[in-house]
Each structure stands twice: as structure tokens, then as C-alpha cells.
Amino acid sequence: MSALWNGLSALTQDIVMTLLLLLPALIVGGIVLRGFAPWPLVRAILWRFRVASALFVLLIAISVGMGIGLLAQERGLRHGTAQAADKFDLIVSAPGSEISVMMAAVFLQPTDMPLLDGETYAEVAGHESVSIAAPLAFGDSYGTAPVIGTTAAFARHLAEDRIEGRMWETPHEALVGTLVPLAIGDEFTPAHGHGDAAEEHAHDGAHLEVVGRLAASGTPWDRAILLPVETIWEVHGLGNGHAPERADQLGPPFDAAYFPGTPAIVVRSEALWANYALRSAFTRDRETMAFFPGTVLAQLYRVLGDIRQIMSLMALVTQMLVASAVLLGLFILSRLFHRQIALLRALGAPARFVFAVVWSFGAALLLTGSALGLLTGVGAASLLSKLVTARTDVLVTAPLGWSELHVLAGFVSATLLLSLVPAAFILRQPVVPSLRA
Amino acid sequence: MGRLIKGLLTKGLALSISDLRVSAPRGRVLLSIPALEVPAGALVGIEGPSGAGKSTLLYALAGLLEAEGHIRWGAEDLLSLGAEKRARFRARSIGMIFQDFLLFEELNAGDNAALSALFRPRCDRAALRAQAAERLAFLGLGGDISNRPVSSFSGGERQRVAIARAMASEAPVLLADEPTASLDRAAADRLIDDLVTLARASGTTLIVVSHDTALISRMDRVLTIRDGGLAGDRKAAA
């Protein structure tokens, strides 16, 4: 059985799981409704108690929407951040907080960081397994766009060689991310610093021209302006990393004696195993720290995973509380239409028909609320994703996933089964007192 | 009449009661009738003071109350049947009319009259709807009127919908509990005419609980219930 299950594709497993979760509801529905057509009465009862019914549907929709929205959003956030870190195999920096370095290098959050010197950079770049060793230089901005100094090789790697226009060829040329409001051919002067603290005229002598636009990556780098790292160093009066006789050179190798320092080096090697060797080689007490951003994110997800479980549990508890409130409401509403129920019994309706009417009434509320909750959850997750993307530039998309559908299917089945209780309770009500009421 | 309502020639069921005893949950006897015979197709009125047990008798005759003894409709001993068999018997053989109509206000007249089609076997539903439409038409509520929600109807019209509902399934027995009590005199008179005419035309056994002398006077026979017992049994004054 286990082998058969494992042999199914993931999609098939998800479909089967959804159907299995819905199966109790389908079986109960089939048994309860078999041979009857109670819909006109259910519609009539829904219309008679339309305000209360709408309120119940709203409650269910909100609780289901919250659960689905939270699940979808959490997954979208995880996927988006993982995707943002995808191009950063290994980062070497001065010892400190891996999270701070990751936030600065991957998510471009401004942070003060100690610098690595030229000899360290040369050692990293000269390692036989390294194919790209890109120094990063932060600290400048243009409007809301951070200006980052790096190498052409890393820019190409970041955009997967999808560059509209061309790569920079001089220190006065720049590439822009897809969200930067500059066109190819535009000129600009970067400011020193970020946001309100930015000094607009600190680099007045630096006139840069946009010569290329990087393809969208769904990362904060889409809002960044990339320059040759030499340009950043130059405008800060730190030289350009090359000896005077090679002052026109752009990109590595750099001269260790003239290297101004870099807060982080993004390292890429062609072989996966080499990354582990490099991490080991450059993890040294008080000298350097090497880490995989993906691993740091995974650690974060583990911490967030606990929170996620708590949130999921809270959402589930909320849903069950709302479902209980709805069932309680069914008891109360059923007291309001007890005369109609008694009438049906007096006219000779079988108990199962009366049962079907009451159960269908509850099922209609639960199914409508769940369907609206699904839409609400998808809408809320989409809205939240847009907000998070706008605030962080991490492309977060939270499409409806199978796990949300499984939760919904489980909720629908559980509540439809629970709806049998008030329906059975109503059948026990005596007929004649209700007719005489 | 037969021309007006095709297929209305329902043969009523005779009623035979013996040793009927209905008790309250704490044991107080609400109704005790040692013997009573009603021939098929008879129109019977039940009168008596409030709380005497008239409605209790009516609901017992419908099999809606637990009781001791025997209530035989034709050959069927109602009290020997379980709840579901009684319900099936009611659906097949007993139509009921109530003082305050008990209609589904959100449904139109046609759907109310054909209410029992919802729980009938699929093969019976179309015929029952057609019969309900015929009854409504006879009662002056045919055509477009039958498509109007009953919430827009007068009291008299509502009660006529209730009569159509009770007679749609060609039940041989019709039980009515104060059918004119919620109506003004003119509406009550018209309803009495309709009810009596339909019952006589179809041969239905009609048993009516009422304080309305105009209605009681149209019955073949009048039973008086007092203190839970049968205190009188007379022919109605013409």
C-alpha cells in the first residue's frame, strides 16, 4: 500500500488526498439526500433567516479565509525568500551575524559591517574551486534604489545573462534592476547613504550612464543599481582596487595592496561539493566567516516553522470554534422553524426527509461559507503578497496550494459530519406541541 | 364537479375507535373514548369547550400522539404502526388543515400546495404537482396566482392553499383544526363552501374541529367532546 502510494505522482497524491478528505462528506451527503429534493424548502428557510444565515456564512468565510490565507502566505514568503537567496551559493564575510550579512548581501538591507581585506579576497578569488568571487560594495543610493558595486561576472550570474542593452565597459556605466525607474541612456549621480540620511550631493562629480537593464529576478536586486565595484571605491576616494599601472582595469583580479576592503564576497563554484570545501576553508576564528544563505534561511524557517504550526493550530481552533458556533446557531435557528418541521412530519414526511432538510440547511451555510472563505483566503494572501513584495522587493506569490485545499476539505468534511447532530436533535422534538404553538 | 376536478373521486376511509386513551406524560388522562364509528365519506364536526380534548382527538386520529387502544382507518390500525409507518400512512391517506395555515411563506402557492411532492418517490412527483395545480385552480388560485408567494395572499387565500395542499395527494381522510378561526366571516363562509364541496365531491372523510357554528352546521354529524370524553353525538342541524 505504502509502495503504491509512493509510486503515485505528487499531483495524484494531492488529488487523492483531497478526495479522501472529502469522502466522508460526500458519503454522508449521498446517504442523507438519497431520493429527496429538499432544495425548495432549504432555499425558503435560508431566505426566511437570511440575516442570521448571512452572518453565519460571513463568520465561516472569515475563519476559513484566515486559515487559508495564513498557510498560503507563509508558503509564499518561504518560497520567495528561498528564491531570492538562490543566486548566493556561499558568502564570505568578517565574523559576525550570518543573518545580518545575509540581510545585507541578499536582501540589500543597509547594515554596518566590518570589511575583509585584499589578501583575504585574493585568497578566496584564487581558490581553485572558485569560479566567481564578487566583492560587494554598499552604502550609496539613487532615490529608493540601493547602488551596489560588484563585478560583471556576478551581474551576469544574477541576471542569468539576460541583460537588455549591454554590460558596463567603463567605470562610468551602470546596470539597473528591472524595477529601477531609469531607462537605458539615462544619467544619474548616486547619493551617499540611504533614505532620509542620504547625502544627495556627496558624489556630485560622479555622472553615471545606464547601459543595461537586468532581467527580473524577483529579488530586492530588481530595485538595485549595479556599478563596477571600482566606481564605488573611487567615488569614496578609496582608489579602485588596482595598482596604478592597471588603473583602467575593471573587475578581478584586484591588487591586494590597493584593495579598499569589502563587507562580503559572493562566492560561486561550479561543483556543489566544492561549496562545502570552501565553507570549511574560509570559516576561521576571528578572520572570516563563510556560510550558505540557504542554510541560514532554513534555520529561520525552522524557527518560523514552529510559529507556523502555532498559527495553523490557532487558525484550526478558530475554524472549529466558528463551526461550533454555527452548529449552535443551527440548534437555535431550528427552534425558530420548528413549526415548519412539525408541519412536514404532520404531512407525512419521512424522518429522513426532515433530517435532510435541516442537514442541508447547515450544509448550505457551511459550503457557502467555505467557498467564500477560499476566495477570501486567496484574496487576502494575494493582497498580503503584494504588500510584502512592495515593502521588501522579495517577489512573494501565494497561489492556492494543495495544503490549503486539504485543510478546507478536512474542515468541510468535519463540519458536515458535525451537522448531523443538530439535524438528529430536531427529529427528537415532539410534533404536536410545535403544531399548536 | 367531476368535470372541474378530474380524478377527484377519492373514496374515503371509515374510522373505528375502540378503547382510545391519550395520557399526559405524568399520567393524567387527556382523552378517553371507548368506542366511535365513522363511516367512510362522512363529514364530522367536533365541538366542545377549549381544553376539552378536541384537538387531542384530531392529532391522535392523525397518529401524531402516542395513545393506547385502537384507531382503525379502514383496515389499518394506526396505533400499531411505528412512527415511520404512521408517517407513510399520513402521507398516503390523511390531509391536514390548521388554524393558522402553516404555509411556507417564501414559497409560491403552487409549491406550497405540492409540498408533499418533495418527499414522495420521484415517479409520483409530477402527478402530485398536477393534482395540486388542479385543486388550486378549483379553489380560484390557478394560473399566474399560483406562482405568487403566499406572503402576498389574504388569510382566506392562504387557507385555500392549505386545503389544496391537504387534498393534492387525494388523501381519503381530511382532518381540519379550526380552519376558519383566523378568517373574517366572508372568507370563512367561502372557505366552508369550498371545503364541504370538495369533500363531498371526492367522497373524503372529513373531520373538523371548530367553534364555528356555520361550519359545524354543514357537517353530517357533530361530536361533542367535554373533559376528555365523548359527551354528545348528534346529527347536525340543517
Characterization of the model:
The complex is a heterodimer of chains A (437) and B (238). By secondary structure, chain A is of the alpha+beta class. Chain A folds into two domains: 10-83 and 304-436, no CATH class; 90-291, no CATH class. Helices cover 55% and strands 12% of the residues of chain A. The relative contact order of chain A is 0.19. Chain B has a single domain (15-235), classed as P-loop containing nucleotide triphosphate hydrolases (Rossmann fold). Chain B has helices spanning 54-61, 83-93, 109-113, 122-138, 155-167, 185-202, 213-216; strands at 15-23, 29-38, 43-47, 68-73, 76-77, 94-97, 173-177, 205-209, 221-226, 229-235. Chain B has a six-stranded mixed beta sheet with strand order 6-7-8-3-9-10, with helices on both faces. Chain B starts with 14 loop residues before the first strand and ends with a strand. In chain B, 51% of the residues are buried. The model of chain B has no long low-confidence stretch (mean pLDDT 89). The A-B interface holds A 35-38, 40-41, 43-45, 47-48, 339-340, 343-351, 353, 431-432, 435-436 and B 55, 59, 62, 64-65, 83-84, 87-92, 94, 96, 98, 102, 104-107, 111, 115-116, 118-119, 121-122, 125, 165.
Topology:
The complex is a heterodimer of chains A (437) and B (238).
Chain A: H1 2-7, H2 10-33, H3 39-48, H4 50-84, E1 90-93, H5 98-105, H6 118-125, E2 130-142, E3 145-150, H7 152-159, E4 163-165, E5 173-176, E6 187-188, E7 191-192, E8 208-214, E9 225-228, H8 229-235, E10 264-269, H9 272-281, E11 289-291, H10 293-336, H11 338-346, H12 351-392, H13 402-418, H14 420-427, H15 431-436
Parallel strand pairs in A: 3-9, 5-8
Antiparallel strand pairs in A: 1-10, 1-11, 2-3, 2-7, 2-10, 4-8, 5-9, 6-8
Helix pairs in contact in A: 2-13, 3-12, 4-10, 4-12, 4-13, 10-12, 10-14, 12-13, 12-14
Chain B: E1 15-23, E2 29-38, E3 43-47, H1 54-61, E4 68-73, E5 76-77, H2 83-93, E6 94-97, H3 109-113, H4 122-138, H5 155-167, E7 173-177, H6 185-202, E8 205-209, H7 213-216, E9 221-226, E10 229-235
Parallel strand pairs in B: 3-8, 3-9, 6-7, 7-8
Antiparallel strand pairs in B: 1-2, 1-4, 4-5, 9-10
Helix pairs in contact in B: 4-5, 5-6
